[in-house]
Write a structure and sequence with these properties.
This protein is α+β, with helices and mostly antiparallel strands and 579 residues long. The chain is built from 18 helices and 28 strands. Strands 11-15-16-23-20-19-17-18 form an eight-stranded mixed sheet. Strands 1, 2, 3, 7 and 8 form a five-stranded antiparallel sheet that branches. Helix 1 packs across helix 2 (57-72). The model has no long low-confidence stretch (mean pLDDT 92). The structure holds one RNA strand of 75 nucleotides.
RNA sequence: GCCAAUGUGGCUCAGGGGUAGAGCAAUUCACUCGUAAUGAAUAGGUCGUGGGUUCGAUUCCCACCAUUGGCUCCA
């Protein structure tokens, strides 16, 4: 193994050993606790602990201090293998470990790792000594609860999250990145920039403010223009539909606890949690020929889902959101090309936002419907389409929907965090359930294949993602206010207002700050609002008929005519430049 | 939904059994200023909601609501 943090295997081993060191420290300080499990994760490690009290930040500091002591003690970490009986005897006071041992298969090697007085059931591997861990580059970050084995019916344990690096500077860099992420939190920016609100009266139901609406509508205008170019039509299906539709689609049986329902004139209705069933009705409403296919039908549908209260999170996880949905009906032969067409569209859209992505292929889950051969064909087609497009992918085994395999697009933002937005799902169930048909060249009825896809995923979530990605400093074409005119003195107020209305008449979103404040103050506020251009006007500009332009980045672009400024804006908007 | 923490003026936060305080924002006045905070004055809060304990609760207790961090789930 390469002993470098660049090497994922080594990084995991290092942090796994940190998890053991943390467990040892906890046991030294609080001998009454029982240990569950403690793995390395993406950016650190955690340990689940059953304690009769709650850990607080001061306790985490103490544990961290003890961990440093354990590192200084340079305890050798020694592996041993025991028989099942010996293992059970050794762990007789650790009920969770006993459960783990009992669940191991008969032929399993049961290994332990000892460091000083501490010994833990573990498959390993580990570092050879606690001295290998850099004590001052460990940080315990938070504690939260987690269910034993992820089962909500089982006991809730306390999880301590921590991270560790081989150098203190690297830890500090990581902590800075966490702070930066916090600074970019879309919930904070959404409030500061006047984009949206979440209120007690509507948990999970966001309110969009005027500036947020500009953002949302601009995204939607863009979405429409792209989809038109890619041959999509657009429909809108009702928010609320009768129970028998949801029974036919299967939602009433499988998704009812997430649906808002009502009784109207003695009949059950449900608010749509998905757009597909309505889309199926539209397809069925007329007879289709093979010449109509592929038929691409988009819908920006507002859906409502009763998500658990504890899962709500800003715009990332809400109870009502707009899916930028589309259903594509096609023959099985057209599927591969059609998926490529969708990937091309995704490529175009994501690159406009400067978001890169990784594709995951989610395959047949254990609990699925339909023939295995059909699943195999569908999954192979998804993979083949990716390969044709030169896209690499990773397999997410068994993570597909029960009705078909899917491609998931995980977007990486400017901080390297990933968000699942786009998906391309093959649906092998709905065409059956709704008995969709088209008339083939042979004059016979055939069943079409169907793709269900979203690019943004949810407009609301996507707004959250790009708010954090751009730290609120949206590209000019998306900025709710594109330019703000700042008169230096009252003498320039009239000229400022003239410039503002000129900009507005030319189709730009412009404001003017006419308050009798100093220029520096107005600039400070405009930058806090992430307004791309500040148009400063004073006596000199009035005299020369110019505007003095400053970009939010701090760049002073000097004086220019209003026409050249507008030409510059136009160019930046039309190219959807990220600046 | 579960576990834990939190909830004080528009925002960020301090305080604490004897009915609240700061900074920023707001309003008014003065200043008329060339690239990240001009000064002064004024106004603004039934301390999340509902019960309970108490002579007295914003403070202690209980319930509920919401938020935050997780679990679970997912666009």
């Amino acid at each position: 193994m390469e002993y470098s943090f660049e090497n994922e295997e080594y990084r995991k081993m290092y942090r796994h050993s940190c998890a053991h060191i943390m467990a040892q420290a906890v046991k030294r300080l609080y001998p009454e606790v029982k240990l569950a499990i403690g793995p390395a994760i993406e950016n650190g490690f955690y340990y689940d602990i059953d304690a009769p009290f709650a850990f607080n930040p001061e306790m985490l500091d103490k544990i961290e201090e003890e961990m440093r002591a354990i590192c200084r003690e340079k305890l050798p970490i020694v592996r041993s293998e025991l028989s099942r009986d010996e293992a059970l005897e050794l762990m007789k006071d650790e009920s969770y470990k006993i459960e783990l041992i009992n669940d191991l298969p008969d032929d399993a090697v049961i290994s332990f790792y000892r460091q000083g007085e501490f010994i833990d059931l573990c498959a390993g591997p580990h570092l050879d000594s606690t001295g290998r861990v850099k004590g001052n580059a460990i940080r315990l970050l938070s504690c939260a609860s987690a269910y034993w084995r992820g089962d909500p019916d089982r006991k809730s344990l306390q999880r301590i999250y921590g991270t560790a690096f081989p150098k203190k500077e690297e830890l500090e860099r990581y902590l800075l990145r966490l702070e930066e992420a916090k600074r970019r939190d879309h919930r904070k920016l959404g409030k500061d920039l006047g984009l949206f609100l979440l209120m007690d009266e509507g948990p999970g139901f966001p309110f969009f403010l005027p500036k947020g609406m500009i953002l949302k509508n601009t995204l939607i205008d863009y979405w429409r223009s792209v989809h038109k170019r890619y041959g999509y039509q657009e429909i809108s299906t009702p928010m609320m539909l009768r129970r028998d539709l949801w029974e036919r689609s299967g939602h009433w049986q499988h998704y009812k606890e997430n649906m808002y329902t009502s009784v109207i004139d003695g009949t059950d209705f449900a608010i749509k949690p998905m757009n597909c069933p309505g889309g199926m009705l539209v397809y069925r409403s007329v007879q289709h020929s093979y010449k109509d296919l592929p038929l691409r039908v988009g819908e920006l549908g507002l859906v409502h889902r009763h998500e658990l209260s504890g899962t709500l999170h800003g715009l990332f996880r809400v109870r009502c959101f707009t899916q930028d949905d589309a259903h594509i009906f096609m023959t099985w032969e057209q599927m591969r090309d059609e998926i490529k067409n969708v990937i091309r569209l995704f490529d175009e859209v994501y690159s406009v936002f400067g978001l890169s992505y990784q594709i995951e292929v989610s395959t047949m889950p254990e609990d699925h419907m339909g023939e295995v051969e059909v699943w195999d064909y569908a999954t192979d087609t998804l993979k083949a389409a990716c390969e044709d497009m030169g896209k690499s992918y990773v397999i997410n085994e068994g993570d597909g929907a029960f009705y078909g395999p899917e491609l998931d697009f995980h977007l990486a933002d400017s901080l390297g965090r990933t968000w699942q937005c786009g998906t391309i799902q093959l649906d092998m169930q709905l065409p059956e359930r709704f008995e969709l048909e088209y008339i083939g060249a042979d004059g016979q009825k055939h069943r079409p294949a169907m793709i269900h896809r979203v690019v943004f995923g949810s407009i609301e979530r996507f707004i959250g993602v790009i708010t954090e990605h751009f730290a609120g400093a949206f590209p000019l074409w998306l900025s709710p206010v594109q330019a703000i005119v700042l008169p230096i003195t009252d003498r320039a107020s009239g000229y400022a207002e003239k410039i503002r209305s000129h900009l507005e008449d030319s189709g730009f979103r412009a404001e003017a700050d006419l308050r009798p404040e100093k220029l520096g103050y107005k600039i400070r506020e405009a930058i806090a609002q992430k307004i791309p251009y500040m148009v400063i006007v004073g006596d000199r500009d009035i005299e020369n008929e110019t505007v003095s332009v400053r970009h939010r980045s701090g760049e002073d672009m000097g004086a220019m005519s209003i026409d050249s400024f507008e030409a510059l804006l136009k160019e930046e908007i039309e190219s959807r430049m990220i600046k």
